[in-house]
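ugh ok fine here u go
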Amino acid sequence: MSALHFGAVLSSFISLLFLILALATDYWIDNSLSRTHLGVWKVCEDHKCYPLRLELVRGSLRAIRAFMFLGMISGVVSLGGLCVLFWKPLLGNISMSRTAWYGSFSAGLCVMIAMSIFTANAAATTYYGWSFGLGWASFPLYLLTGGLAYTLHRSTAATA
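structure:
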């Protein structure tokens, strides 16, 4: 196992962890003065949380959810490709290193779109929470993972 491969797996794992935590938690917007916080699934006021009903959810929030899920699926594909690469460079005719960097860059693109939509639709006086920060942090980490996986692909293709 090379340091490049280990770095790509670690970066992919951390990116996916940040993305899952951002998607699962409800601190995208946090206003401690009024003791409310909001996520993509529910809103909480005074320690009582209510799910965001589908008929009340705007199209932009549906797009955010969809792109976050697409990013998560691509991130799982990337991490899976990097893990399979420990044992087999090819699965049939499919290059695991190529799958990993395609998945990482796709995940980064999907997360960037989702987070940009959320940022654009948030009010100017919004207090962003830590879930929002984790969502944005996963974007450059996926780009880093994609770069590492691409370099790994280039080095494994040169030796094959």
